[in-house]
């Protein structure tokens, strides 16, 4: 390619909730694009950047040392107005004016809905990279940010166990994942929690306060006095962990403390797993652009890179691992152990 020949230009944006590892993905896309002789234009604040035409050119020197930071250097946002046809048409015009031939979208299923919406009004290529702590995107074994969120929740649960043991208290730890219990399940299992309240389990048979109290007492009967740690996915109990702990204290005289992890799960250095996953999927996204792919999300399944059509990412359900649920509920449940021993 001669100096006078313009480089093919690709766009990148981060959309929706931020996830640890998004910066690593931006870095990978920028470095891969440079390797293949492409130019990268980054839109700020997700789809809002497309609509407002706010962007910057990214060079390798801009991204060399960002993979260890959470958040996203190009900012993220949710854009309700992007659902409108007029917004997608405006974005398409802006992309054409900027001579962008392909767009890489880093985000979750809502971001990929936006990408699919845009594709109805723009003839460029669109590739998705799964970035969400919830791990609820269909078709990939893991999403960028999930590993870090679980590690943060596990670390908090380990520390809470120390103080819970010291005072023989019940602790309710509220984690993110209002629609998917991946963080709740994996962190509860990793930290040895006694109870999980997850969206998937609540749909089948919602827990009552009486059932929770009976289980706490049975665990104490089996193991003797001690701590009891419960992992609660957000929006799975009226009023959340605070209301549930207050109810246990007031009505059942159980010393109980709530702990809301909230957006702490989105911060801190990404784990090695998230950094490597983001790097691999980011490079793969650029290579898919060069291969002419369109309307697909990059994914990893059983250790292999693959693609998933955008529509599948939200129309199909990413299920909790049945074996992990079985182990946590049946094998690690001290109450059920006791029943089997005396059965």
Question: Which sequence of SSEs, written as H and E, runs from N to C?
Answer: EHEHEHHEHEHEHEHHEHEHEEHHH
- The helix content, as a percent range, equals 40-55%
What's the story with the biggest beta sheet?
Answer: 7 strands, mixed
Mean of pLDDT: 93
The secondary-structure class comes to alpha/beta
Biggest sheet strand line-up: 3-2-1-4-5-10-11
CATH class of the largest domain: Alpha Beta
Radius of gyration: 23 Å
* Cα distance spanning the termini: 76 Å
Range of strand content: 15-25%
Shape: elongated
Q: How many individual domains?
A: 2
How many beta-strand elements? 11
Number of helices: 14
**At CATH's second level, what is the architecture of the largest domain?**
3-Layer(aba) Sandwich
Topology:
Elements lengths: L8 E6 L7 H14 L3 E5 L3 H6 L2 E4 L1 H4 L21 H13 L2 E8 L1 H11 L5 E6 L15 H22 L2 E6 L6 H10 L3 E3 L1 H6 L4 H15 L4 E6 L6 H13 L3 E5 L11 H20 L4 E6 L2 E6 H6 L6 H10 L2 H8 L2
Parallel strand pairs: 1-2, 1-4, 4-5, 5-10, 6-8, 6-9, 7-8
Antiparallel strand pairs: 2-3, 10-11
Describe this structure in words.
The structure is a single chain. The protein folds into two domains: 9-145 and 270-315, Rossmann fold (3-Layer(aba) Sandwich), CATH 3.40.50; 146-267, Phosphofructokinase domain (Rossmann fold), CATH 3.40.50.460. The protein is elongated. Helix content is 46%, strand content 18%. Helix 6 (146-167) packs across helix 7 (182-191). The chain has 343 residues and is an alpha/beta fold. Mean pLDDT is 93; it is low at 338-343. It has helices spanning 22-35, 47-52, 60-63, 85-97, 109-119, 146-167, 182-191, 199-204, 209-223, 240-252, 272-291, 310-315, 322-331, 334-341, and strands at residues 9-14, 39-43, 55-58, 100-107, 125-130, 170-175, 195-197, 228-233, 256-260, 296-301, 304-309. It has a seven-stranded mixed beta sheet with strand order 3-2-1-4-5-10-11, sandwiched between helices. A four-stranded parallel beta sheet has the order 7-8-6-9, with helices on both faces. The protein is built from 14 helices and eleven strands.
């Amino acid at each position: 390619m001669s100096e006078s020949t313009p480089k093919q230009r690709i766009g990148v944006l981060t959309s929706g909730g931020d996830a640890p590892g998004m910066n690593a993905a931006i870095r990978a896309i920028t470095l891969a694009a440079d390797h293949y002789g492409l130019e990268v234009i980054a839109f700020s604040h997700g789809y809002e950047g497309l609509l407002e035409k706010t962007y910057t050119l990214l060079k390798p020197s801009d991204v060399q040392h960002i993979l260890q930071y959470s958040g996203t250097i190009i900012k993220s946002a949710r854009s309700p107005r992007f659902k409108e046809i007029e917004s997608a048409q405006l974005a398409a015009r802006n992309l054409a004016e900027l001579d962008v031939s392909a767009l890489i979208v880093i985000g979750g299923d809502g971001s990929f809905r936006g990408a699919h919406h845009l594709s109805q009004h723009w003839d460029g290529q669109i590739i998705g990279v799964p970035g969400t702590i919830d791990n609820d995107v269909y078709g990939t074994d893991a999403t960028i940010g999930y590993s870090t969120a679980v590690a943060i929740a596990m670390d908090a649960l380990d520390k809470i166990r120390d103080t819970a043991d010291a005072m023989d208290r019940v602790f309710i730890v509220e984690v993110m994942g209002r629609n998917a219990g991946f963080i709740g399940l994996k962190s509860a299992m990793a930290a040895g929690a006694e109870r999980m309240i997850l969206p998937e389990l609540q749909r089948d048979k919602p827990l009552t306060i009486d059932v929770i109290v009976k289980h706490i007492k049975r665990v104490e009967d089996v193991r003797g006095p001690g701590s009891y740690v419960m992992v609660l996915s957000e929006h799975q109990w009226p009023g959340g962990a605070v209301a549930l702990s207050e109810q246990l204290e007031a009505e059942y005289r159980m010393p109980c403390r709530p702990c809301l992890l909230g957006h702490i799960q989105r911060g801190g250095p990404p784990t090695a797993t998230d950094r490597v996953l983001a790097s691999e999927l980011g490079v793969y996204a650029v290579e898919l652009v060069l291969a002419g792919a369109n309307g697909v999300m990059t994914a990893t399944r059983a250790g292999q890179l693959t693609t998933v059509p955008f529509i599948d990412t939200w129309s199909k359900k990413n299920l909790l691992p049945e074996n992990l649920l079985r182990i946590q509920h049946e094998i690690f449940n001290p109450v059920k152990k006791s029943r089997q021993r005396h059965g």
